[in-house]
Amino acid sequence: MLLAGAASAGPTPAPVRAEIDALLARLETSGCRFGRNQEWYAGADARAHLLRKLEYVEKVGTIRSTEQFIGVAATKSSVSGAPYQVQCGSAAAVSSGPWLTGELKGLRAAGGKAAR
Fold first, then answer.
1. What distance in Å separates the CA atoms of residue 73 and residue 53, rounded to the nearest whole number?
2. Domain membership flag for residue 22
3. Which of 13, 62, 93, 96 is a Cys-bridge partner for 87, taking CB atoms 3.0 to 4.6 Å apart?
4. Spatial separation of the C-alpha atoms in residues 43 and 38, rounded to whole Å
5. For residue 71, is it within any domain?
6. 3-state secondary structure of 40
7. Which domain covers residue 47, as residue numbers?
């Protein structure tokens, strides 16, 4: 269920939203492809899709951390239940959750503000 783990409805706190935006910007500019429902999309399309999912979640719940956003909205299709994947270059595709979590760690290590 998409809403599992989301608190009562409301906007994502500004520091968390800023971190999510920075994370999705990394996805968009990574040069990697984003797989969902057996199709591959460019980073810009992936970012737009995940932002739409965030907006939906905000209508029915509140995201309190970037990790929660990854778990609730960025790991699998809410329609088919199929996991999302990320493929960079000729490397094998990996699940989006670990890829996004790794990028989040890199973002925070590079001085991005941590929103926990």
1. 6
2. yes
3. 93
4. 16
5. yes
6. strand
7. 14-108
pTM above 0.85, yes or no: yes
DSSP letter at 8?
A: S
- Cβ atoms 108, 74 nearer than 8 A: no
Is 56:2 a contact under the CB 8 Å cutoff? yes
On the question of pLDDT at 5 being above 50, the answer is no
Judge whether residue 2 has pLDDT over 60: no
CA distance 90 to 4: 34
Q: What is the pLDDT of residues 21-36, one digit of tens each?
A: 999 999 999 999 999 9
Question: Which amino acid makes up residue 45?
Answer: D
Tens-place pLDDT, residues 56-114: 999 999 899 999 999 999 999 999 999 999 999 999 999 999 999 999 999 999 986 54
Burial class of residue 39 in the structure, from the number of CB atoms within 10 Å of its CB (0-12 exposed, 13-18 middle, 19+ buried): exposed
pLDDT at residue 80 in the model: 95
Structural domain contains residue 33: yes
Alpha helices in the chain (DSSP H): 14-29, 43-60, 66-73, 96-109
